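Example for tutorial group B:
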C-alpha cells in the first residue's frame, strides 16, 4: 500500500517516511517513481499540484518558451525534440542506457555551441533585467540550470562580459536597506555565482571560483537571504532538489531534464512568498511537451497545472481595455509626450479623476492589481507593444500615488519601472505634489501640529478636492491614534465623527460642491 503526497512543503525530494502497520508499510513521497511503487504497491491517495495551489500551499507555475530566441537552426530543435521522444521509451536494458548517454553527449554539443551560448546569455540578461526593472521579480532571485559544467562556465563568462559588475562582490544590492543586525549575517557577494562541486580536472580559474564545501554552504545561506547581493545562481545538478528559497520566482532551464527530476526542478519556484503570485519557468530547450507528459505520469494531472505565457498577455490586454473605458473622458496624452512637469501634472489630475466615486476608485485599484499581476509574468515578452507598456506604466503610477494617499507607504512605487520610479521621485521636489508624499510623515518623528496655520497652508496648496480629503482623512486618523494614548474614550468619539464625515462624502462624491463642504467640515 502506498500513500502519495505531491507538491507540498512538507515532503522533500526523494526522502520516504515509512509507517509500519500490523500488515503493511505505508510510503509517503513527492514523486512516485517506479522503484517506490515496486516496494510499496499501488497509490492509495494522491494530492495533486492543482489541489496544492488551491489550498495555498504552493503557487501556480507559468511557462515561457524562449527557444526560438536562441536557436541557431530548426534542425537543432528537431534533434532536441527527438531526444525527449526517445526518453519516453528508454528504460532498463544496457542498449537503451548507452543510447541515452550518447544522445546527451550529442545534445550537449548543440547546447554548448559558442554562438548559441552568446545568444542565450544576451537573451537571459535582457529578460532578467526587464523583470527586475519592472518589479516583476520579488527580490530578483533567479536560478539558471545548465546541461553540463563546461557549458555553465562558458555561460557564466559570457554573462559577465555583458555585465561585468555582476561579478563584483558587494554586501547588498543598491535598493536594499541593511540593518545593523543584518550586517552581521549578510556577507559581500557577487550578483552572479556558479554553484557546483569542484573537479580535479577543472582549469585553475574554475577550480578557485567554485570554492570549498564550506564556501558552497555559505553560498546556500546567502542565496536564501533576500537582501543579499547574490541574486543569480547558475547550477547543473546542485540545488535542483531539496533546496527551498521561497523568494525564488524564476527558473531558466537549458538542460534536458526528464521525469521526476523535472518535477523536482520546476518545483524550486512554486514556494509561497509575500508578493509572489506565481513562479515562472523560462524554457531554452523545448521542455514543454516533455513537461506535459511528466505531469500526466507523475502527478495525475495534465498541462492545466501550468499557465502559458499567452494567458498572461491576454489578461493584460483585457485589463487595459477596462482601464481605457474608465479613463475615456480623461486626457492623458501629456503623460506620454509632455515634459516631466507636465507628466507630473497629468499624474495628479489622473489621481483626482479616478477618485470621482468610491465605486470607480475601487474598480480601478482592483483592475490595476490584476493588470500588474499578469504583466509581472509576461514583461519579457515581445508581443506587448510599447504603447501597451506605456499605458501599463501610467495606470500603475496612478495606483501607486493613490495607494500612497490612502496607506502612506506604497510597495508599488518600488516595483515600478525605472522611468516611472524616477518620475515619482521627482514629485518630491515638485511644488504641490510634494505634499502628496510628505504631509503627515513629520508627525511620526517630530510631533508637528497638523492643525497649525503652516500645515493648513500646505494643504491648501493642493488644488484637488478629492486628493485633499484623502490626505486629511489619513492625517486625522493618525492624529486620533496618537490622542488615544491620552484619552481613549474621547478618541473613540473622534473616530466615529470622522467615519461619519467620510461616509457622507463617499455617498455624495459626484457632487463637487458637496465635496468642498465635507472638506471644510
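The residue assignment follows.
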Amino acid at each position: 500500500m502506498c500513500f502519495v503526497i505531491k507538491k507540498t512543503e512538507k515532503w522533500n525530494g526523494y526522502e520516504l517516511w515509512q509507517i509500519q502497520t500490523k500488515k503493511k508499510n505505508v510510503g509517503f513521497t513527492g514523486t512516485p517513481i517506479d522503484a517506490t511503487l515496486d516496494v510499496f504497491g499501488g497509490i492509495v491517495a494522491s494530492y495533486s499540484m492543482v489541489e496544492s495551489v488551491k489550498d495555498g500551499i504552493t503557487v501556480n507555475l507559468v511557462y515561457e518558451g524562449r527557444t526560438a530566441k536562441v536557436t541557431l537552426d530548426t534542425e537543432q530543435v528537431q534533434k532536441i525534440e527527438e531526444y525527449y521522444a526517445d526518453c519516453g521509451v528508454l528504460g532498463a536494458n544496457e542498449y537503451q542506457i548507452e543510447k541515452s548517454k550518447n544522445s546527451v553527449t550529442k545534445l550537449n554539443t548543440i547546447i554548448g555551441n559558442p554562438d548559441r551560448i552568446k545568444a542565450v546569455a544576451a537573451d537571459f540578461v535582457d529578460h532578467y533585467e526587464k523583470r527586475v526593472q519592472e518589479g516583476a521579480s520579488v527580490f530578483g532571485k533567479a536560478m539558471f540550470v545548465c546541461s553540463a559544467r563546461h557549458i555553465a562556465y562558458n555561460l557564466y563568462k559570457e554573462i559577465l562580459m555583458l555585465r561585468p559588475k555582476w561579478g563584483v562582490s558587494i554586501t547588498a544590492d543598491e535598493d536594499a536597506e541593511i540593518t545593523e543586525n543584518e550586517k552581521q549575517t549578510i556577507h559581500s557577494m557577487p550578483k552572479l555565482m556558479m554553484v557546483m562541486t569542484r573537479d580535479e580536472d577543472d582549469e585553475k580559474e574554475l577550480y578557485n571560483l567554485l570554492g570549498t564545501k564550506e564556501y558552497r554552504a555559505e553560498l546556500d545561506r546567502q542565496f536564501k537571504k533576500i537582501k543579499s547581493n547574490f541574486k543569480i545562481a547558475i547550477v547543473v545538478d546542485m540545488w535542483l532538489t531539496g533546496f527551498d528559497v521561497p523568494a525564488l520566482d524564476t527558473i531558466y532551464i537549458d538542460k534536458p531534464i526528464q521525469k521526476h527530476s523535472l518535477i523536482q526542478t520546476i518545483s524550486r519556484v512554486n514556494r509561497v512568498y509575500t508578493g509572489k503570485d506565481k513562479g515562472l519557468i523560462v524554457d531554452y530547450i523545448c521542455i514543454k511537451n516533455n513537461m506535459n507528459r511528466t505531469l500526466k505520469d507523475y502527478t495525475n494531472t495534465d498541462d492545466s497545472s501550468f499557465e502559458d505565457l499567452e494567458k498572461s498577455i491576454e489578461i493584460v490586454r483585457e485589463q487595459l481595455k477596462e482601464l481605457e473605458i474608465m479613463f475615456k473622458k480623461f486626457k492623458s496624452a501629456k503623460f506620454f509626450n509632455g515634459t516631466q512637469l507636465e507628466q507630473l501634472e497629468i499624474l495628479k489630475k489622473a489621481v483626482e479623476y479616478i477618485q470621482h466615486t468610491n465605486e470607480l476608485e475601487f474598480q480601478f485599484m482592483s483592475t490595476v492589481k490584476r493588470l500588474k499581476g499578469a504583466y509581472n509574468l509576461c514583461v519579457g515578452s515581445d508581443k506587448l507593444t510599447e504603447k501597451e507598456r506605456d499605458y501599463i506604466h501610467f495606470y500603475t503610477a496612478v495606483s501607486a500615488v493613490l495607494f500612497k494617499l490612502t496607506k502612506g507607504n506604497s510597495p508599488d512605487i518600488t516595483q515600478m519601472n525605472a522611468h516611472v520610479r524616477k518620475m515619482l521621485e521627482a514629485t518630491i521636489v515638485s511644488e504641490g505634489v510634494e505634499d502628496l508624499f510628505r504631509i503627515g510623515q513629520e508627525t511620526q518623528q517630530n510631533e508637528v501640529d497638523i492643525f497649525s496655520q503652516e500645515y493648513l497652508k500646505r494643504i491648501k496648496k493642493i488644488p484637488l478636492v478629492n486628493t485633499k480629503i484623502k490626505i486629511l482623512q489619513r492625517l486625522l486618523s493618525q492624529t486620533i491614534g496618537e490622542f488615544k494614548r491620552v484619552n481613549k474614550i474621547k478618541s473613540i468619539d473622534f473616530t466615529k465623527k470622522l467615519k461619519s464625515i467620510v461616509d457622507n462624502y463617499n455617498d455624495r462624491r459626484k457632487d463637487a460642491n458637496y465635496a468642498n463642504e465635507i472638506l471644510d467640515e
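Residues 53-73+114-301 form a domain with the Rossmann fold fold (CATH 3.40.50.300). Compare this with the pattern of hydrophobic and polar residues in the output above.
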